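Entry, Tuesday afternoon. Goal for today is a structural model of the target with coenzyme A bound, before we commit to ordering more compound. Inputs were pasted exactly as handed over by J.K., no edits. I checked the ligand SMILES twice against the vendor sheet because last time a stereocentre got dropped in transcription.
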Amino acid sequence: MQKQYIIRKFNPKDLDNVVKLNWVFLPENYPSFFFLENYTHWPEAFLVAESEGKIVGYVMCRVEEKYYRFSPVKLGHVLSIAVEKKHRRQGIATALMNGAEEGLVNAYGVDLIYLEVRVSNEPAISLYKKLDYRVLGVMPKYYSDGEDGYLMVKSISERASDRLITAVLGYRVKSL
Ligand SMILES: CC(C)(COP(=O)(O)OP(=O)(O)OC[C@H]1O[C@@H](n2cnc3c(N)ncnc32)[C@H](O)[C@@H]1OP(=O)(O)O)[C@@H](O)C(=O)NCCC(=O)NCCS
């Protein structure tokens, strides 16, 4: 079957539609300036999915820096992803994640990519597992309604060993 959507970089003219998707499909909402700020700094890792001229999904990421053994480590952080309900299970989130990872790696040289997800969010957890993210641990009561979150991570560079990951992210989680 031919793909019914395209994946492309976010453009500020998409802002209202992306903010709307965020409000409708996620309990974690951000003000418009937060989307624009991330776009300004990391445009290669902020993508949208478009179907018949309509925005039906987005993924927004940022890049953070930590230190390990006195040298900087670049962390890609997937901040938010959502796909319009009637367009789900067509590979759109997978394509968005693949595109964002490509941007994080090729444009920003990240060593690893991480994200938070509600422990009850089975669709998202299985999406991330399928993309080779693994659960590093649980963040008790991470969400504002008291739900726990998993912190999931994927190594990218050779130096992103378990030891490095524990040093830069392990402090955020209780191990399982
Ligand atoms: C999670 C979400 C982004 C997935 O989007 P999607 O476009 O349907 O995902 P894909 O079609 O790329 O699915 C890829 C894989 O993820 C898993 N998956 C997706 N939806 C699933 C579901 N409802 N139940 C179980 N597994 C699911 C499957 O392994 C799927 O592969 P398959 O279809 O070959 O079985 C979408 O459900 C969504 O927008 N949810 C609300 C917002 C949200 O929870 N965002 C994540 C916050 S951390």
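The CA atoms of residues 49 and 57 lie 5 Å apart.
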